[in-house]
Structures are given as structure tokens and as C-alpha cells.
Amino acid sequence: MLKIKIAGNIIIDHNNTQLSIDPIKKTYNFETNFITHAHKDHIGPRKNDFSTYFTTAPTLEIANSIFDDNKSGKFLEFNKKYKIDDLEYKIINSGHVLGSYSLVLEYNGTKITITSDINNIDTTTTKAATVEDTDILIIESTYGSLMDVFPDRKNEYTKFLKWLMLNRLNGKLPIVACYPLGKTQELVKLICDNTNFEIGLTNDAYKICDIYSKYGVNLKNYLTVNRNLNELDLLILPPQKIKKTLVDAIATASKKSIAFASTTGASFRFGEHFKISDHCDVNGLLDYIVNSNAKQVYTYHGKDIEFANIVNKKLGCYSKALKEIKTFEII
Ligand SMILES: [Zn+2]
Fold first, then answer.
1. How far does the centroid of ligand 1 lie from the alpha carbon of residue 172, in Å?
2. How far is the centre of ligand 1, averaged over its atoms, from the C-alpha of 31 (Å)?
3. Is it the case that residue 255 has pLDDT exceeding 70?
4. Mean pLDDT score of the chain, rounded to an integer?
5. Domain residue extents for the chain
6. Which residues are CB-neighbours of 48 under 8 A, at least 6 positions away?
């Protein structure tokens, strides 16, 4: 028997053993936790026992670096088939951040793909998500509204680089709001491949850059911000750290005026905004579904109900938000 349900996170009930995908809840007691990537809302709290984590080597390393810990877990390799009794599974690249995966289950002749967070466009640091031919697709819907259309990524990269260079030319200190895992490394790669700018990062982002470099994404010219600000050409900081008092303090310490920009996922009422995301936009999600040949589509996260309706109308296949049905069974 295989049941899939959502209760905070997705849970697979396999012959009455519960397997969890990304145990975000504080109270968890699953023996198997598929950890799809190391964003904080997917790796669970610090206290969790990583020995129950089934994940990739880079994800575990990033999780340990975030928690300043050294726990071990069980490693999965991409595209290799594994088995738990009569349930087969494998992981495929989800294109989201270093080490991230989608989970493909095969049970009784039915294939089920659970995407977790996906991006189906190549970035400076990640390859587009691999799409598996599947019967049932459970797909994230963070940007699942018809309004969620991102511009061409290469054009957005060019716009960002122009903004950066122009502000440096004018003697300003650019500050860019980016989460420490994923987009920070994408922008560091973009900047270090196109300029000689020295990039100031928080300790967390700095350590994650080292892990990216270790796994073959060659990042350069990044430093921690704990130094003379005049040695740095720009700062990349987590959105939650950006407060007016901090920006004022940086302006005073550096004796420079500040140019500010944010990226998708963090909106501010001021500065420039670049639509650079490590998720699919609505068209990317629809493309993913078409390429997967799924006959049933369940949506979760973000705009799940709205996106399920869009899938029904545009693609004509059965689609429902997972939270609306709560559970379904594969015979
Ligand atoms: Zn994520």
C-alpha cells in the first residue's frame, strides 16, 4: 500500500511506515526523511537527527555549515535506483540549488514524481531540472499565478551587471539583497566571471560559496564583510538583515552613498529589483508538466489552488491542490 498525504510537509505512507519529505515540523519522528535541498524551510530544525536524512553530499555539507555542526546522514546519488521493499525510488536534478533533487517513486507499475522546489532554466551555477516521464506529478507552485512570468534570465543578468558597474563608476557602494544559499552563489558567479569586483558576504554565504567551489562551481573574489568596507566593491546580504539603520551605518563607515537592489523572493519599497529566481515561473511549471506526460497533477506550496485551476484549463489534465484532497492512494 502506498499513500501520499500532506500534513505540513509531504508524507509517504508505505505499508504503514511513514517516510517524510523535508521535515519542516519541529515535532517529527520519521525514520526516513528525504531532504531535497538545504534551504532552511526544508532541512528542519537544528535539533534533528541527521542520521535519518536521505540526501546528497552537498546538501548535508551546507546543512552542517548553516548549523555549524558535523552530523552524518545517508547519501543518495543522482539517477541511481534504490529500494525499500516493493517501493523503488531515485533522485533527479531539480535545478534549484547545489545538491537539490526531485524524488521519483515507482510502486506497482505507477511512477510518481515529487518535484520539491524546481527551476527548469540553466543558471550560472545550476543546470535546468531533469524532467522524468511520470504518471502522477506532485509539483511545487510557488510562482503558480498567471502574473508570475519572469523575464529572459540572460537579459536580467545583463541588466544587473550594467546596474552594478554604473553604480561603481559613480563611486557608490552597491548592496544586493539575496538569500545566502542559491541566489547569492548565482550572483557571485555572474559577477566574478564578468568583473574583478571584490564581493562582501555574510559568514554563512561565504561558507556556502566554499562548498559550491568544492563541488566544481568555480567562485572567486568573495570575502566576508568583517573587514574594511573600502576593500569591497559591493555587498550581498540576506534580506532580513537589511534595515535602514544598517544601510545608514554602512554608508557612514564606507563614506559612500549606497545603491540598493533586491532579487525575486525579497521585495522592498526602494531600490532596483531584478527578477532572478531559483524557482520556475508559471510558464516553466506548465512546460515541466507537459514534458513529464503526467496524467494526474497535484500542486503544493505557494499558489497551489490557483495553479491547479490553470493546469486544468490550459492543459486539460486532472489537477488538484494536494491540501484540498489531503491524501491519495496508489493501488
Ligand atoms: Zn528552496
1. 32
2. 23
3. yes
4. 94
5. 2-148+279-330, 153-274
6. 23, 28, 33
